[in-house]
């Protein structure tokens, strides 16, 4: 490993340059003070050309095995390859002595996630999971409102990550193969379950409905998850590619007020359009017309309630937290154990949908 003193940039290898690698990880890594994108692992010539156009100084490797042969030149490996490769590649990186960030989901099962956590702890290495939706503008705003007691005691949390994509795009994400870990339950479900657990704590009961709606699809594309948290809050979570009329991103009902917010955080769209943190300002800010509303006994659809200024989205905070954790030995922004807890819920949801039953979960200490 290179010197991790404050004067030396930490060198990062990025495995995979598809959607996750090119849109999220590479731009956010390069926007982070103290990190440098050293190597991209992809054997695809078109993706290499795409990456070289934006990052002319980056090196390329055709296989992750090339990284394990020069671990002394790297400080972090980021795994943004297809889901089925997350566990074997994270295992190889940790065994080679390298800290690891893994795109969500960390694994296909909570047991695999906890085995990775145990391996990382045994070797004294960082292992974190890219749950970037914790830094969405609406999530940050809701967390602020709850912390300030603006809603009273939260009773019900409704979260929707809905899209209208009636035509299949193809690829492993729409595969019905369990080995691919595709489908919306593990894709968007990883985000909305993680957000619910961060806000309201452990789940004790899970019920789910999961369907394949589009002709030719083989993986779930319309999923509902109901969580009862240990503190009594109920979360109703929706992930769908077949929603012709989109509902609110959040509807949160408390004992004294409710909060309703429509629309998605702008950061993903900005990243897709080539806008970059640090060069495009103000980053993560949405116009007042998109702000959510808070109130009681009134309908936001007809202008009821008071507008609530949305906190700026802050995806760059994730890798800033990773850099700090590597340099100072602090906890990473997302732990593998938190990812495993979300996978407990996702596994329970998959079983609930398959068997038509409610699943009880034990609260882990």
Question: What does it look like?
Answer:
- This protein has 365 residues and is an alpha/beta fold.
- It contains ten helices and 15 strands.
- It has helices at residues 19-30, 45-54, 65-68, 86-95, 110-123, 137-147, 188-200, 267-272, 316-328, 336-355; strands at 10-15, 35-41, 59-61, 76-79, 100-103, 127-130, 154-162, 203-211, 222-229, 234-240, 250-254, 258-261, 292-295, 306-308, 359-360.
- Strands 14-13-12-11-7-10-9-8-15 form a nine-stranded mixed β-sheet. It has a six-stranded parallel β-sheet with strand order 3-2-1-4-5-6, with helices on both faces.
- Helix 5 runs antiparallel to helix 10 (336-355) and helix 7 packs across helix 10.
- Form type: globular
Tell me the span between the first and last alpha carbons: 34 Å
Question: Count the strands?
Answer: 15
Number of helical stretches of at least 4 residues: 10
**Structural class by SSE content:** alpha/beta
Strand portion, in percent? 15-25%
Question: How confident is the prediction overall: mean pLDDT?
Answer: 95
Summarize the amount of helix as a percent range: 25-40%
């Amino acid at each position: 490993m290179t010197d991790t003193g404050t004067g030396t940039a930490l060198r990062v290898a990025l495995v995979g340059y598809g959607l996750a690698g090119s849109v999220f990880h590479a731009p956010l890594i390069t926007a982070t003070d103290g990190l440098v994108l050293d190597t991209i692992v992809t054997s695809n010539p078109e993706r290499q050309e795409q990456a070289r156009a934006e990052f002319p100084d980056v090196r390329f490797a055709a296989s992750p095995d090339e990284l394990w042969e020069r671990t002394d030149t790297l400080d972090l490996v980021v795994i943004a390859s297809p889901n089925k490769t997350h566990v074997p590649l994270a295992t190889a990186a940790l065994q080679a002595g390298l800290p690891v960030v893994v795109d969500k989901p960390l694994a296909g099962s909570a047991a695999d996630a906890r085995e990775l956590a145990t391996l990382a702890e045994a070797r004294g290495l960082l292992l974190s999971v890219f749950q970037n939706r914790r830094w969405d503008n609406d999530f940050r705003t809701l967390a602020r409102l709850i912390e300030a007691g603006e809603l009273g005691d939260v009773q019900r949390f409704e979260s929707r990550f809905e899209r209208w994509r009636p035509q299949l795009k193809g690829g492993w994400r729409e595969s019905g193969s369990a080995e691919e870990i595709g489908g919306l339950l593990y894709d968007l479900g990883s985000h909305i379950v993680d957000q619910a657990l961060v806000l309201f704590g452990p789940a004790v009961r899970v019920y789910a409905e999961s369907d394949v709606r589009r002709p030719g699809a083989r993986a779930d594309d319309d999923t509902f998850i109901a969580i009862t948290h240990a503190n009594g809050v109920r979360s109703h979570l929706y992930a769908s590619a077949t929603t012709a009329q989109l509902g609110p991103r959040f509807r949160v009902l408390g004992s004294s007020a409710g909060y309703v917010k429509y629309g998605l955080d702008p950061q993903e769209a900005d990243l897709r359009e080539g806008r970059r943190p640090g060069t495009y300002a103000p980053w993560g800010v949405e116009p007042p017309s998109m702000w959510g509303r808070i109130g009681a006994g009134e309908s936001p659809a007809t202008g009821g309630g008071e507008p609530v200024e949305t906190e700026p989205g802050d995806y760059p905070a994730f890798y800033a937290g990773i850099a700090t954790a590597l340099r100072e030995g602090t906890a990473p922004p997302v732990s593998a154990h938190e990812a495993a807890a979300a996978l407990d819920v996702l596994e329970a949801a998959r079983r609930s949908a398959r068997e038509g039953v409610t699943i009880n979960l034990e609260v882990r200490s």
